[in-house]
Amino acid sequence: MAGPPKGVPPVRFVVIEFESVSKTYRDGTTAVSDLSLVVPSDKITVIVGPSGCGKTTTLRIVNRMLEPSSGRILWDGAPLRSKRKTTLRRQMGYVIQSGGLFPHRTVVDNIGTVPSLLGWGKAKTRARSLELLASVGLEPKLADRYPAQLSGGQQQRVGVARALAADPLVMLMDEPFSAVDPVVRGELHEFFLGLQRELSKTIIMITHDIDEAIRLGDRVAILRVGGRLAQVGTPQQLLDEPADSFVEGFVGRDRGYRLLSFVPAASLRLEKVQVVREATGASGDRPALVVDADGVPQGWLERDGTAGVRRLGSVFDPESDTLRVALDSALTSPVGLAVAVSKSTGRYAGVVAADQILAEVTDARAALEGRVFVDEVSRGSTGDAASPESAAAQTAPGETRPESGSELVHSAQVPAQAEARALSAGPGDARRDDPSYRDANAEPDLVDRVPAAEIVPSGVAEEADDEAARKSGGR
Q1: Could you say which residues of the chain have pLDDT below 70?
Q2: Helix ranges (DSSP H) in 204-253
Q3: How many Å separate Cα 85 from the centre of its chain?
Q4: For residue 301, what pLDDT is reported?
């Protein structure tokens, strides 16, 4: 996949911190209220919530299309307002619904929008655009097509490529996958996660889909209507320990089933069944699995004397899949047995019953609760001198703050790689911004209902107009 363009120095990671950020419009409508949140570097932070909770407003405050009414945002410890808007926006990639592509520009020109604004030469810009086109899985022959000639999924991939063109430090994503069908959305999710594993960008993404948030986010922040933070943590934390009834209702009644997505299937003990290549080779009344010459499962042998083969159901790879995939395999099997295969070869590896999978879940939860208890006892014996009141003031619901200088962690002690790298935040700045800012008199409906094409990519349209005016002599 494409990394930084040639000649561009390696990027440094960015931590973004919200300190008591609020946004209130002239008519008294509050879109965001006292938001304190840390966006860790090189991770995906997903902001999710119902309509009217301030998700898009929060994203637009980050790239200074809107200014907060109070509080501040820090960029690696420095106030965001200390950076020029154009400089800031050129360090950010912006991806929105339907890609937000310029309809009058070709695919390759869309991707090269920001490099062109940065003054890159035509040859360098086109080479970078073609490199990114390949990195997002699109064929070179699409380079000179227009957005209307692409499918919805292809447009989204071009939108991601454009956001990455100048190798930004931060990516902002406003419901980027909501305008495509479920099959394409699943493919885009896999593509996006693979790209993030390669590039490790600091990403803020917003969505209204909790399933999407759980699948893509390293950390997930749930907002209430009115822009108040309800809970922030890893997906596993939100499912395992929702802070209140609102969070519990928002994540859904099937959160126990979703939790299986965070338990690896590698610990399952596989059993053996009778394996045959020909239907006539089976003996006895126990289930028999039919495989081909390469050992790849084909289906289950009928036991009604017809020598037919019943459907297989889904399969799972115990080395890379989770208990959720394994349980789904057992539930779709006509004999109630999940078939395990080797991911590289597809060969049969064993079977496991649904009740064994559920027993594994019980054991995993008991072990987790034991680790939590031991950890709490250990923390209590250290005699942490910080006052409970001061710790609570800087801790989101559903999280606890350990000793000073250490990371903010959840009481469930989730894996460290999904936690924030730097979560120390100073007191909020209650200073109210200068009312002369352009957005001070904006009405909330006007701000939130601007057509997507007019705000993408994060101020680039205005810069493109400015550049065109300069080239034409200011006319």
Answers
A1: 1-13, 98-99, 279-284, 303-307, 364-365, 367-475
A2: 210-216, 235-240, 245-251
A3: 26
A4: 85
* pLDDT score of 80: 93
Look at the block and give the residue holding tokens 């894996």.
415
Round to whole Å and give the CA distance between 472 and 460: 18
Main-chain dihedrals φ then ψ at residue 222, nearest 5 degrees:
-100, 125
> Is 170 exposed, middle or buried (CB count within 10 Å of its CB: 0-12, 13-18, 19+)?
buried
Peptide bond into 457 cis (omega under 30): yes
The whole-angstrom separation of Cα 206 and Cα 55 is 6
Domains and CATH numbers, the chain: 16-234+426-471 (3.40.50.300), 256-403 (3.10.580.10)
Residue 223: exposure state from Cβ atoms within 10 A (0-12, 13-18, ≥19): buried
**Would you give the DSSP letter of residue 422?**
-
Q: Is 137 exposed, middle or buried (0-12, 13-18, 19+ CB in 10 A)?
A: middle
Which residues, at least 6 apart from 27, have a Cβ–Cβ distance to it below 8 Å?
A: 443, 444
Predicted confidence at residue 156, as pLDDT, reads 86
* Residue pointed to by tokens 């419901």: 175
- How far apart CA 208 and CA 219 sit, in angstroms, is 15
Phi/psi at 103 (5° precision): -65, -25
Quote the pLDDT of residue 286.
80
- For residues 407 and 423, the answer to whether their CB atoms sit within 8 Å is yes
Instruction: Name the residue among 79, 60, 72 with its Cα closest to residue 34.
Output: 72
Show Cβ contacts of residue 67 under 8 Å, excluding neighbours closer than 6 positions: 61, 81, 433, 437, 439, 440
Count of other CB atoms within 10 angstroms of residue 451: 8
